[in-house]
Amino acid sequence: MYNAIKNELRACWELCRLHNNIGFWVVWLPTAWSIAMVYHAQPELPALTALSRAAAYVPLCFGIKSLIMTIDDLLDADVDALVERTKMRPLPRGAISPVHAWLFFLLQATFGVYLSTKFLSSTALRVSMFAWPLYLIYPTCKRWTNLAPIPLGLMFKVGIFMGWCDLTVDGSIPWSVLVPMYIGACLWTITYETVYQHQDKSDDIKIGLNSPALLLGDSTIPVCTATALGFLSLLCYGGWMNGHGPSFFAGIAVAAALLLPQLLSTDVDIPDDCRKLFLGTPLVGQAILGGFVVDSVLSRLTNGIPL
To answer: What distance, in Å, lies between the first and last C-alpha atoms of the chain?
Structure first.
């Protein structure tokens, strides 16, 4: 009995991908960018408030990532059993029953809704609801479209709006700044996710699934280079529109130096190359966050604005 409970708890851990936190970073980082942006734009906002809100989003973003990973495994269990990379996930290998996995998902969803209503502002909560249907749509995408990274980006990057909505002092939301940032962040998702899906292309062909890797084939690196440049360009535009200075653009330059050479040297027919690019994703976003934070702090210091 004890061992059975222990094994199911371990399976729940794996369903949430708590052993691999890239999903957390790609959800939390855009939210943190947004918090740094509103901190820069609204001098009345104290640093402690911005930092505490960024910290509060850590468990929320872990929860979002875990919820999405769980529902993805539930709806894809039959497919995962046929793919070499995923056949040892908890459901295909029988480590947890589908009934218990669904109960675990419902527990996460209930707790997530509670946390969201408790900690998010009403505006941020309403914005987040845009992404909720995508939690169920995304796991089915490979069955009917080659464009699964698009809904993935739309739901993972909605924090770009939420961070600002949560902290704005005067109630203003600069959609003309945030929408280009959101589109750019979605292009980032398309970039790393398309390359990552090349790992499964042989199995996808056998099973009859769709993926951007199969759609693009040998054109993957040129297309993903274009989406990566679009991502960096739109972030530059958003940062410029928000009044950011040299430190921010230095962060973008570091991110470009981390992303573009790695992308251009990736051989999509070598799974380790695809995995390596994907594993470097958090560092790209962290470099951008560093640029935002340093620029915002220096701006306040040089203009005599209290931190």
So the answer is: 55
